[in-house]
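Predict both folds.
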Amino acid sequence: MKVLINISVISKNHRGMGVFAKQIIRELIKNNHHQYIFISGNDIDKQMDDLIKSTHHIYRQINAPLPIFEQLVAPYLINKFKPDICWFPSNTFPLIMSSKIKYIATICDLIFLKNEIKPQSLYQKIGKYYRTINILLGTKKLDKVTSISYTVIHEIYDKFQLNEKIDETQVLYVAQQFSFNEDGSIFKKLNIKSSDKYFYSIAGIAPHKNLDFLIEAFNFFQEKNKNIKLIISGATHSKYNGLDENIVFTPFISEEEKKSLIKNAEIFIFPSLIEGFGIPLIEGLYHNPHVLVSDIAIFREIGKEYVSYFDPYDKEFLVKYFETPRKDINHEEAREYILTTFNAIKSTRKLENIFNEFK
């Protein structure tokens, strides 16, 4: 079969959905069961670009803003290559669909439908409105809906009143490749001494990432615990940058630098209010036995009994965490759970089974 896949999400500095798509596509290419046509509306990650170009599969890049690419360029390319199946791995997809082609989309979350999530920039507003319109108008047109967690797939079915039965092949867990190497030079870059104790978090500036709350909770904790720092990645443009010497924001860092920061932290914190999955949770758990995450459904699904949970509205959560005896976690068991559950081979096999449904 011919399968067309939009890989725009695997951009040069991809995160989240880009990591998910990259892991799956590597396995699809390795298995080589179908002819793939990869399309993109922007420059993609160099590793992925080199990998695709080393194969017999087709790659077409036509640079355009996402809405224009998906609604105008992608239908043009679909009509040109006439695939049997199209897979869109990052929430949105063309609204004009051919009845001769099967359309599959992976809807990673419904965060953009939440009224309480207010976009802060024009770019975020455009993204929210585009995703909202796309999902509301197009979800029932799809031949198969997939997602990256059971939590989200059930949310999608409830929201759109989809009648068909959910099966486990529709849940494509995100996989992650863990670096075996560390790069401790990040501590010198951040002016962190070997004697310094710190908490580490990966957050963002979007409201649902709950960064303001984390800063407030850390400041409350600091009132009685001065000799601790908070290091944050993923929010380089935060309004807090430079306001407190004990709060350190990293620039864009390598996987090896990230491993060093996670592994040597007193605790790893992930404070989000809403997530479709949460790659930092599995990264944190793999490298550090002391992981503290907000108590939301998706984190319960992923973290199970291997992490500690806190109320993401209680600014005293850090104080309470250190006043309460820590539960013992078998870290080797937790690492094995991460490797066997969040596995690119398993997720790819599920996706290929969906492809085969349409033969």
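Second protein follows, with its predicted structure tokens after the sequence.
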Amino acid sequence: MFAKRLVKIFIPFLIAGAVLAGTSHAANAFRNVSVGQPAPNFSLQDSSGKDFSLSSYTGRVTLVIFIRPDQNNSIRAMKILQKMYPEFSSKGVEFLAIVSETDQRNNIPVLVQKENITFPVLFDNNRKVYGAWGTILYPTTGIVGKDGKLAVQVPMCDWKFKDTIVGNLRLMLGEISKKQLDLELNPKANETVAPGLAKAERHMMLAEDLMKRQMYTNACKELAAAVQSAPDLTEAHIKYGFALLSKGDTKKADEQFTTALKQEPRSNDAKTGLGSCLVAQGQVDKGIELLTEASKLNPQPARAYFELGKAYEKKGAFDKAAKYYRKAAENLANW
């Protein structure tokens, strides 16, 4: 009982911070490899059975992206990379995409054909590479230098994804200087191109710090400003929803998660949030159904597990509640 209480006390704050931390490029994209460390080698096959090894590209700059073929952000990232691939492959850069979820294997050839992907898309059997790198989110991108060390890590695929990838590849090829790259990626420089997105990201970064300090009202103000600045930014609605949940405003949180799901119907984070709202509003069974769906497909199911624990506790199913509290704690510890 004491252990469960500790889980209930600390996990909400840890998860809330983790949910809000996704937009920062300074955040680690991988748990088990950092910039400057040797990139874990792998040997994988594409859907035709052809072998590819990271070590075979030593001496070349290599981009590695972990994706889910059925996720909109992953598909968007692949489209962006495909457009730039012919130019950079002619300069000796290789792109490798990795699919680690077993339920996605059959979707690889579908993605390749539909989006006309010409660089290798590999299947990570038993998620060995996923574990070796410690992938946190989908999509997640790492750029490996000619020396075989991780040089760049890019979590997610936000509005700066293309500029971040292109800029860093050009830097590693010696086409631009570090100073030029910094100028290109400076949010102030981008503000004339996408002022709303730049403002939204700054508001979300401020909200992340406020959530860590449990200043939920102020965090909600920042996230409301983020949503206003970029209404089509799904992650802003999701983060705002979780902040509102922390504040106890389930009605407004429900609205944010519903909006996020309209924009991104497969968003597991939005489903988790909406399921939590349903439980809080007394629709426990419906909420459990949605939370269970989210936990099965989410590469970061800690929040879904925690909310399932709360839901089952509300039903009086204390054994199941304890089970999901433990799963939340274990998943978060391995994050």
